[in-house]
């Protein structure tokens, strides 16, 4: 009896395992959430609360967005300058803090800061609001005001914030002490085409990689940098192509890095800790919905935020619905499919061998009894 059941069971387990992965993965996940005039520029995933957190344009607010598209206001901070914008947001899961890069965009008076809010307190109490300054812009009035664009956090609670106007990175300690952390010559080593769109936007998306460095991308050159998270020294990562209009960046737990522009998502990997990297796939995005940010959510899935920021920045937008949409690398999907067929093939081969052996066994037994 056992002999008979075992191979069949094994064969069917092969089939089930092979099919379970794509079935559970299903279609890419789409979250359309309603929040009039929000125009969020950034998205982050809160692994403890199992929801996304998004910033907002001119609302001084941070919101959670659930899988079921339920929107909640996490923070409304009336002490921020009126109509200020939250451009970057990240969740410090170890300290249960929300870190938000705050800016006043023209024509409002210039203001850039990092705000931290306590996710353990019921009203998400503000822990600090640290102004972020560009010492060079302070002394030279014709220089661009800083723009605190994106933020990431290390395991000790240090935040790293990119200044996309001044091309450097601030560090803000867990107590809220700010300093210019990395103004590497690498950040200004690549030519910028001043006639191009977004030529004003330098260092932008930034992510902390657990091995002690940051990866940052630069919008107006399409370059990626590896920044030592201890001393701020930086090098350009050698890539097989430029990441045109690079904006948001996120890293999956398997080490694959995804960079988004409003036009596409770049899937990039490296086997030497980001001295070099390879763009192994590009996924087209819906350019008119203007993706600006990418996050790795539950199950290591990659999501982009369609925030329509280009439409909202002039202050006369009337949009009510925004989206967080799962994206996939088609190449990776294909590789998965190949594995499924290999598994089914192996299972079937095993089944045939067993059938053959059984037949021989039966023949032998018949011979003996005859
Ligand atoms: C803030 O925005 C509101 C609504 O758009 C506007 O009426 C108000 O004048 C703005 N305040 C400042 C200080 O710009």
Automatic annotation (TrEMBL):
GO terms for cellular component: endoplasmic reticulum. The keyword Amino-acid biosynthesis does not apply. Residues 1-25 form the signal peptide. InterPro entries: 6-blade_b-propeller_TolB-like (IPR011042), Sensory_adhesion_molecule (IPR053224). It comes from the Eukaryota. The chain crosses the membrane at residues 338-356. Coiled coil: none annotated. Keywords: Membrane, Signal, Transmembrane, Transmembrane helix. This is Glycoprotein gp2. The lineage of its organism: Eukaryota, Viridiplantae, Streptophyta, Embryophyta, Tracheophyta.
């Amino acid at each position: 009896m056992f002999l008979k059941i075992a191979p069949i069971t094994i064969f069917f387990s092969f089939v089930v395992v092979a099919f379970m992965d794509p079935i559970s993965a299903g279609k890419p996940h789409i979250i359309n959430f309603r929040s009039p005039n929000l125009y969020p520029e950034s998205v982050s995933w809160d692994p403890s609360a199992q929801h996304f957190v998004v910033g907002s344009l001119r609302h001084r607010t941070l919101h959670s967005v659930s899988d079921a598209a339920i929107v909640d206001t996490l923070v409304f901070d009336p002490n921020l300058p009126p109509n200020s914008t939250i451009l970057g947001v990240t969740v410090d899961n170890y300290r249960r803090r929300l870190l938000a890069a705050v800016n006043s965009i023209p024509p409002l008076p210039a203001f850039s800061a990092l705000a931290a809010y306590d996710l353990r307190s019921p009203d998400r109490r503000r822990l600090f609001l640290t102004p972020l300054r560009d010492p060079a812009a302070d002394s030279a009035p014709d220089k661009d005001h800083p723009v605190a664009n994106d933020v990431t956090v290390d395991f000790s609670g240090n935040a790293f914030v990119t200044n996309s106007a001044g091309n450097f990175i601030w560090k803000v300690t867990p107590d809220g002490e700010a300093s210019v952390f990395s103004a590497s010559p690498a950040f200004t080593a690549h030519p910028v085409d001043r006639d191009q769109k977004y030529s004003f936007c330098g260092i932008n998306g930034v992510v902390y990689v657990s091995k002690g460095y940051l990866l940052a991308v630069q919008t107006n050159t399409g370059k990626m940098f590896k920044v030592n998270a201890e001393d701020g020294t930086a090098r350009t990562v050698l890539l097989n192509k430029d990441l045109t209009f690079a904006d948001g960046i996120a890293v999956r737990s398997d080490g694959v890095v995804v960079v988004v522009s409003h036009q596409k998502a770049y899937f990039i990997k490296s086997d030497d800790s980001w001295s070099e990297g390879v763009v192994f796939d590009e996924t087209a995005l819906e350019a008119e919905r203007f993706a600006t940010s990418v996050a790795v959510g539950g199950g290591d899935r990659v999501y982009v935020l369609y925030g329509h920021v280009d439409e909202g920045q002039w202050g006369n937008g009337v949009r009510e619905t925004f989206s967080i949409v799962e994206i996939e690398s088609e190449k990776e999907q294909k590789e998965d499919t190949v594995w499924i067929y290999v598994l089914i093939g192996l299972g079937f081969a095993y089944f045939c061998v067993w059938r053959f052996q059984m037949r021989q066994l039966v023949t032998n037994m018949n011979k003996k009894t005859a």
